[in-house]
Amino acid sequence: MSDIECKLLIIGAGPGGYVCAIRAGQLGIDTVIVDEGEPGGTCLNVGCIPSKALIHAADEFYKITHASQRPLGISVPQPKIDLAKTVAWKDSIVKRLNTGVSGLMKKAGARFVSGSARFVDGKTVLVRKGDEEHSISAEFIVIASGSAPVELPILPFGGPILSSTEALALTEVPDSLAVVGGGYIGLELGTVFAKLGTEVTVVEAEDHILPLYDTGLTRPVAERLDELGVTVMTGARALGFEDGTLQTDQGEVAADKVLVTVGRRPRTVGIGIEELALTQDGPFVKIDRYCQTSMRGIYAIGDVTGEPMLAHRAMAQGEMVAELVAGHSVEWDKRAIPAVCFTDPEVVTCGALPDEVEGTKTTLFPFQANGRAMTTEREDGLFRVVWRESDHAVVGIQAVGEGISELSAAFSLAIEMGACLEDISATVHAHPTRSESLQEACLRALGHALHI
Ligand code: FAD
Ligand code: NAD
Fold first, then answer.
1. Which atom number of ligand 1 is nearest to the Cα of residue 309?
2. Confidence tier at 1 by pLDDT (50, 70, 90)
């Protein structure tokens, strides 16, 4: 006999799980959500939100410290940063959002249970907290257990070897930092510390940083890292760490701390997923276009199901699964999921990359020809549209530039709505804004750009 019975049980209250719980509650589904940590998961507690808070703080600090080197005529006495206070501010935002998520779930009528969940069978889960254990049975179960940092055997986490979680909690600015892995997290956090005054070295195994993308898109980020004094070693491998020195196959790097950001692995171990023998997709839980696993009644959403490991993808999947459990007819038919790398400058990609789809062409427009970019002292970066030759449909948009993340909604909207070059070109874009460069890229593709 179960202690709790419900229609829907969700394991994990990250962006995937908590959105699923809120929507399910709104739909009148008797819902229980379990998490061993604070509501909000990786994203809210040790991921998206804390990293963006520190990126903002570091950016402000860097702008102030470098005011006299800029052409604006501003000078300030040498500022200082108290990282412990910055981190306390970041933690206060996290706390506010924890409370907010709890409140939203409660308002929707979903019950939150604190503890660690483990499957007993396809309909029952045991939840343990301290010495207490109780069972929950449900008609439908959603696995939303997320992901955890990958650990390198040669650089086990602990002491000076940090994962992103510890790096986000440092209360003193290290003198030197080696970042192993020049992907999303390594570059976002590496840039934070470089702007705070740390000597940063990035050790990336591939031949360029952010290897998911082509160098045409990532070059402005590489150039800015150089400007910030970050040393980037590419095609390099870390071999070990001893006495404040990171050994690599390209030489030694002096480092007070080493941040290892070589990807994230799904959290499938310890949940009893192995016993259920769910079909896997590599290390991830395999799902179909309904987020249904190989066992009827069990869904999986978010990072545990693989790339792209993004909070907004997890949220969209969570919402869809709630609708499915309510008996609505929906399926995963998103044309594009925007991805933003909050580096300096920021990188946004949405839909197809150049050469990914046959019969497409790519046209770019640089920010050097954009008035707004000039007025913000940042002319680095560009817009790119990937469009189909047969009907001019825009199937991909990429951009790299300061503050470009805020334009990502326009990219997804255009692609979801099936916009073609003519639609975007004929849309009046406000002047002076960086967004005009999207219109200009489309005009350029049609052969009549106005400002280049
Ligand atoms: P998670 O957020 O990982 O949540 C899973 C939850 O399940 C956790 O709370 C965990 O405690 C719980 N759980 C796991 N196992 C159990 C169990 N057995 N019992 C009970 N509870 C359990 N994405 C973006 O889109 N934008 C960003 O800017 C961004 N920045 C990031 C920065 C960093 C430093 C990191 C690490 C990640 C970032 N991400 C970002 C990725 C984003 O955090 C994830 O894609 C997102 O959190 C995935 O959501 P999820 O619901 O699948 O899982
Ligand atoms: P990542 O996949 O973005 O980057 C890992 C990098 O490490 C790659 O460049 C890879 O080539 C390199 N690498 C792998 N093994 C290595 C080794 N032994 N030595 C040196 N380099 C090595 O992974 P991440 O930065 O850890 O981020 C994990 C996930 O979190 C990403 O997939 C992303 O989806 C998500 N995330 C998203 C955001 C965002 O949306 N802004 C921010 C942070 C994280």
1. 45
2. low
Answer whether the bond into residue 345 is a cis peptide, omega within 30°: yes
Task: Find out if CATH 3.30.390.30 is the number for domain 339-445.
Answer: yes
262-279: average pLDDT? 92
2-149+265-325 CATH, one of 3.40.50.720, 3.90.1150.10, 3.50.50.60, 3.40.630.40: 3.50.50.60
Cβ pair 220, 82 in contact under 8 A: no
What percent of the chain has a predicted confidence (pLDDT) above 70?
A: 100
Q: Is the pLDDT of residue 186 over 60?
A: yes
Catalytic residue list: 431
pTM score, whole prediction: 0.97
Which pLDDT score is estimated for 296? 96
Q: Do residues 199 and 218 lie in contact, with contact meaning Cβ atoms separated by under 8 Å?
A: no
CB atoms under 10 Å from CB of 251, counted, come to 9
From residue 156, give the alpha-carbon distance in Å to each of 152, 160, 350. 6, 10, 35
Distance CA 400, CA 404 (A): 7
CA-nearest residue, atom 27 of ligand 1: 48
In angstroms and rounded to an integer, the radius of gyration of the C-alpha atoms of the chain is 23
Return the number of other C-beta atoms located less than 10 Å from residue 176's C-beta. Answer: 17
Whether residue 448 has pLDDT greater than 80? yes
> In which element (H, E) is residue 121 found?
strand 116-121
pLDDT of 142 over the 70 cut:
yes
Query: Domain residue spans in the chain?
Result: 2-149+265-325, 161-262, 339-445
Q: What is the mean pLDDT of residues 351-379?
A: 96
Whether 2 has a pLDDT exceeding 70, the answer reads no
CB contact set of 92 (below 8 Å; sequence gap of 6+): none
Q: What is the mean pLDDT of residues 387-397?
A: 98
Instruction: Check for a shared fold between 161-262 and 339-445.
Output: no
Using a 6 Å CB cutoff, which residues line ligand 1? 11-17, 34-37, 41-43, 47-48, 51, 116-117, 144-147, 164, 185, 267, 271, 302-303, 309-312, 314, 342
**CATH code for 161-262?**
3.50.50.60
Q: Going along 352-401, which residue ranges are E strands?
A: 360-366, 382-388, 394-401
